[in-house]
Fold this protein.
Amino acid sequence: MKGPLFYSKILLFGEYGIIKDSKGLSIPYSFYNGALKLMDTPTEKTIKSNESLNRYAAYLATINPDLVVFDVVKLNADIDAGMYFDSSIPQGYGVGSSGALVAALYDEYAQDKITVLENLTREKLLKLKTIFSEMESFFHGKSSGLDPLNSYLSIPILINSKDNIEATGIPSQKSDGKGAVFLIDSGIVGETAPMVQIFMENMKQEGFRNMIKDQFIKHTDACVDDFLKGDVKSLFKNTKQLSKIVLNHFKPMIPQQFHDLWKKGLESNDYYLKLCGSGGGGYILGFAEDFEKAKQALHAYKLEVVYNF
Ligand SMILES: Nc1ncnc2c1ncn2[C@@H]1O[C@H](COP(=O)(O)OP(=O)(O)O)[C@@H](O)[C@H]1O
Ligand SMILES: C[C@@](O)(CCOP(=O)(O)O)CC(=O)O
């Protein structure tokens, strides 16, 4: 057995906001991917993955059957036979390792599944997102379902609001462009669930809620609009604001040793940093109008370009 490949994703904008009601924009990142496979010779990695699937299968069997029903008998038999998720997607790096896994399992075991080949109306997309949100909650505590959706469809997804999502095109990349979006490897593994929990706790405070509504969501939405329009000038203005807000209000999600680097970008304007997914480690997402300048300022770090302006 070797299932189809599912890609990692990069949530360019919308982390945390999309759990509430902000816009979000997520693109597939084919550099990393994963597929369900049967073990030949067991290794530490494949055994660990198989055990993780076993725990997850028990959860999948408890999901409301009105939403989605899985072929649990086949799933359990495959797990007993040594199935694992053969994936290059780093876990806890904010690029959707659990999302790709969720997409692969839905694809293989969901009954009456919505397939990528049919006409994906807004209703069908929303239904898929609801199913994925429920499936991924096992890993996240609370999940928007966007990661698996992106992985399942392998196309950019625009979230306009909680119940208004669509497949979208993004402006084509300029291979000779000076600007870039890039990843910085923090070298630390993050965990989504505790970060989402901190966010949900903070949301119980009125001051934090107001900041999310009046500042965080406002700039997130503006960034999404600018990116899709290709308005690079306005995009950098709004990304700078977003970077500032995140530094001030999402400190637990930024590894301590990156606080200074984050601030330096805001002061020099050489680059702006933002969270990549839930944060707490993993990748940090960078935006630079002049990538050569950013590279110099960040020479001590390993950068991976994901988009050129
Ligand atoms: N290859 C894999 N095999 C089994 N489980 C996996 C695999 N990759 C990811 N997972 C599951 O997904 C979890 C990571 O998901 P999460 O914390 O949401 O991080 P990410 O940002 O990478 O999606 C892991 O703890 C594990 O339970
Ligand atoms: C924080 C959040 O908005 C994005 C999390 O992404 P990741 O699991 O860190 O890739 C949670 C979600 O939308 O499921």
The domain at 6-167 is CATH 3.30.230 (Ribosomal Protein S5; domain 2). The longest strand covers residues 24-38.
